[in-house]
Amino acid sequence: MLSKHLDYLHLDESLEPDKDDQATIPLAVPNDTVEELGWYVGPFDEQCIAKLTFAPSSGSSQPNAVGVHTWKGTNLRKQRRLKLTRRGACLVIPVLGVSAEKGAAFGREPCLVILVSLHFREKGAAFRFVVMMHAPSNKRTAAENGDGGIDVVLMRSLGNGEDLGPIVRYAFECGKPEALLHQLRNVVKKKEVEIEEMCKLHYDEFILAVDELRGVLVDAYDLKSSLSSENLQLQEVASALLLRLDDLLELYLIQKNVTEAIQTLKVCVQVSKLCLACNMHVANIRFYPALKILDLIEKDYLQSTPLKALRKVIDKQIPAIKLHIEKKVFSEFNDWLLHIRSIAKEVGQLAIGQAASARQREEEKRAHQREAEEQSRSGVSDPVYALESEHIDEDSVLEFDLAPLFRSHHIHTCLGIQEKFCEFYYNNRLLQLNLDLQISSAHPFLESHQPFFAQIAGFFIMEDRVLRTSRGLLSESQVESLWDSAMSKMKSVLEDQFSHTNTANHLLLIKDFVTLFAATLSRHGYQVTPLLEVLDNSRDKYHELLLSECRKQIGDILTSDTFEQMVIKKEYEYNMNVVSFHLQSSDTVPAFPFIAPFSSSVPDACRVVRSFIEDSVSYLSYGGHINFYDVLKKYLDKLMIDVLNEALLSMIHTGNLDVSQAMRIGANIAVLERTCDLFLWQAAQLCSVPLHLVERPHAGLTAKAVFKASQNAAYNALLNVVDSKLDEYLALMNSINWTADETPEHANDYIHEIVIYLDYLISTAQQILPLDALFKVGVGALHHISDSIVATFLSESLKRFNLNAIIGIDNDLKMLEAFADERFQSTGLSDLKRDRSFRDCLVESRQLVNLLLSNQPDDFMDPVIREKDYGALDYKKVATICEKLKDSPDRLFGSLSNRNAKQNSRKKSMDTLKRRLKDFS
């Protein structure tokens, strides 16, 4: 045992005693074998003794034994290495630092004896053994002479009744058994002497004891004789009784046989009754009690039935009855499988109908909430809050019978074939699911998608009920496997069908039913996220189809619009076309008939946009994203910009519009620009987004700025139409006599036509356009007239003109300026506080005429005067026009006698101007 647990103990070196003559000795012991180590060290006498205890060191693979070795009256001055080695069953520890002189202090040789106690963890073993320590020297040790240590140890071991095996093994391992034998003989001799002395000491007591023993022997002999006599008498009396006892035993045997026969009959009768009850239960299709009886017979009666024939019959019939029950239950279960598949569609439709009702209630609640928020926002009335609590037990509504399934499961469990039944159930339901997942090509998917998803919903609702109510019939992993298989198939079917669907409404109908299907099954714990992801992946296609339909609708609306102001005759028409889109200028209901500032295409287009928002919300809601407001806003912007705005621009650029139609389109675009905020607000309401988020800066639609730009495009188109019409009237300037001999008193004929057209233009614009647009149209028309007058002077077709022609143009400008001033005041444009008026648009032509009529035209070259009176004129234009200003020769010659100094001065000034302009250029 020592060789197994303690092969080597090592006492390390560097032992330095302290001032109290105490030295600490480390001891390395295997941690997994030794649990406790205690040893006592000291010389032969017990004056000096120390105890070393074992203590494991933390963080070390080997523990340490730390203790104190005390020497009284001696000092250890040298450091020595102590090494403990095993010799057989004993341990020898040489002590190199103990001299004979120090050992003499104890009256003995320098030899130490160590008593070591080891307690091992294995099986609670405990060992105690003796170790001799000796100091090697030139003298003989006590062990070599055969006395000393071994004698003391031997005597102590004998005195304590300990095992001498370790000492014997040690003596033989050292090769010196003679010393041990010598000591043992000495011990024997000592013991014999002690025994002899003991006997001598108690000699009289021994003699008395022998006498008493002899007296006891005589009494024992008398007792034996008395017992023998009594035994003979007892046998004589009992002979008659023994005969009667034999008769009694025979009767007992008969009674036993009769009792056993009765017990056998009772058992057989009881077993027969159980068999009869079992047959009745089987006949009445009560298989579970029949199986319980069969199990009772098998466990408690079959082996204990005494009649072998009956036991054999019963043993043969039990398997037959179980097989019969199994077939019956199996047949009933197959019928149930067919029935449950037939009602799965109905169960699914009912469950999806419940989900649709719940969604409808939620939408109504949201509508009431939006209405309350709108009333609160408008300050009409205080919102009324109502708490509605409704709980529907789906299991009580979705009724379907699972009793045959549970009965079959229970019967198969009793038959010990539960796993076989569970596997059969799972495989058959998997086959039914694969059949349900087949898409019929006989009908369009739009017609067959509802029965398809209702059948699958009913299937998994039943499986969820089975999983929750049965014990061990289905596992969650099996249901998840079925669901994953169905999900993969449904995803592929939806993706394929969506790729072939080209109508937005069809996509929306399928999507609505799929989301109801997903909501229904998510209530039963199924993961429907992959299905919703398919819907999200198709939202771009849906909106492209929806935008295409809206593009066609808006195109038809614009094509059929005559762009005349809409006349509303009834209040319900006003509410439907104006109030519903917040197009009214005030909350007061106007008098009817009411002439709207827009054409019929505006409310029609608003209805298309509102329908688009509702359809888009219908598709985006109840999908994979909770907050889809940003997505809706993106598609709304796309509708307003890419569809509605593009259609209006196409009408502007490609349509042959007259002035009123161009004005009406510009006015319509202005109205549509204002509706952007309304549509965004409606979208936020439908998405349940707080209105303060919509009203933040930069939170509006991009389409609003686009409509602003399109409005400018419409006004530019209007100006192009106006300019074209003005060019027709301005072309009449070619009929002016540019070298007239007489000074004209009235304006030219063309200017009358222009004023009449401008009056019609501004009057029409005042009825249709806002003041800003009216100002822009008026400014553009007058600018064009002024530019055209200047361009006429610059045209190559005009070679020369005289002062009388300039006076005629001056009359034209005066008439035009008077009209511009009057219209600028009468239309209310003066209240806009613009930086210029209509008259300012004619400044270039007016400054040119003033320069040509000036008595000092060379003042044009004076920077101060030019900046003040001729700032709108260009040097080159003035130079070209002045070159064409020439009086006719016959007039010049005919008026030589009448020329005055003023005319000469003007002519000289003009000549100076021409010369200086020529030098400047």
Automatic annotation (TrEMBL):
Cross-referenced Pfam families, in alphabetical order? EXOC6_Sec15_N (PF20651), Sec15_C (PF04091)
Compartment list: Cytoplasm, Cytosol
Alphabetically list the UniProt keywords: Coiled coil, Cytoplasm, Exocytosis, Transport
| Record's keyword annotation contains Cell membrane | no
UniProt keyword annotation of Magnesium present: no
Q: Which GO terms describe its biological process?
A: acceptance of pollen; Golgi to plasma membrane transport; intracellular protein transport; pollen germination; pollen tube growth; vesicle tethering involved in exocytosis
Q: Where is the composition biased (Basic and acidic residues)?
A: 360-376, 908-921
Ranges for the Exocyst complex component EXOC6/Sec15 N-terminal domain? Answer: 183-352
Specify the Exocyst complex subunit EXOC6/Sec15 C-terminal domain's residue ranges: 530-884
Q: Name one GO cellular component term.
A: exocyst
- Region (Disordered) residue ranges read 360-381, 893-921
The protein's role, per its UniProt record: Component of the exocyst complex involved in the docking of exocytic vesicles with fusion sites on the plasma membrane during regulated or polarized secretion. Involved in polarized cell growth and organ morphogenesis. During cytokinesis, involved in cell plate initiation, cell plate maturation and formation of new primary cell wall.
Per the record, the similarity remark reads: Belongs to the SEC15 family.
According to UniProt, the name of this protein is Exocyst complex component
This protein's species is Ensete ventricosum (Abyssinian banana)
